Amino acid sequence: MPGPVKRRYDATGRREAAARTRAAILDAARELFTERGYAATPMTAIADRAGVALDTVYAAAGRKPELARLLIETAISGTDQVIPAEQRDYVQAVQAAPDAASKIAIYAAAITAIAPRLAPVLGIIQQAAYAEPELARLWNEIAERRAANMRRFVADLATVAQLRLDLDQAADIVWATNATEMYQLLVGQRGWSPQRYERFLIDAWHRLLLAD
Fold first, then answer.
1. Residues 170, 174, 178, CA angle at the centre, nearest 5°?
2. Containing domain of residue 107, as a range?
3. Domain with 41 in it: what CATH number?
4. Tell me: the pLDDT tens digits for 59-106?
5. In this structure, are 87 and 109 located in the same domain?
6. Structure pTM?
7. Each residue of 79-94: b (16+ CB within 10 Å) or e?
8. Is residue 112 located within the same domain as residue 102?
9. Which residues have C-beta within 8 Å of that of residue 133, sequence separation ≥ 6?
10. Count of the separate structural domains present in the chain
11. Which residues, including other chains, have CB under 8 Å from residue 138's CB and lie 6 or more apart?
């Protein structure tokens, strides 16, 4: 008689459970950092809010500075996963767009979608960076990475249109105008709608970046 049929191990359920746990940890950290501030939030509080053991927090997200990095990366990606810039849908769409108007419109829409997720997290990290050397290094790294990404964007723009500025100046303008601080000022404080903010970015980049 044939022996018993061995079942193939299916790790799908385990992966889904791990994803739910990590999402709960990220949600708990985001809420507590907002309520109490970064420095005043111990990892034990995050574990309690997420309903998991402290060791689970460390295994899923790392130490507190690494957890802060994850909050930033997932706010950018809009998922609970870190997605490198070159693999993001909007970056690939910008690169594939045939003209400057399309590239600018795609990028402005992406920034408008990311900003409300990213602004609160960056605000927390920026405030805590003054007293936390590891967060200060993270903040500087993010700023430099943004600057490099902006330069790649304007370099791509220059392949289909003439720019009115050199690449470095153009990149600095994009870096400044798409900062979450700008979104907070116009949408958060002045009451602009996200749609108006998106139109502002499109118009500003056309006027400031492209030659007549």
1. 175
2. 64-209
3. 1.10.10.60
4. 998 999 899 988 988 888 887 777 787 888 999 999 999 999 999 999
5. yes
6. 0.82
7. ebeeeeeeebeebeeb
8. yes
9. none
10. 2
11. 65, 68, 69, 72, 125, 129
Same domain, 107 and 35: no
pLDDT digits (tens, 9 = 90+) for 21-70: 988 999 999 999 989 988 899 999 999 999 999 999 999 989 998 999 88
* pLDDT tens figures, 180-193: 999 999 999 999 99
Among candidate residues 62, 82, 103, the one where a domain is terminated: 62
- 103 found inside a domain: yes
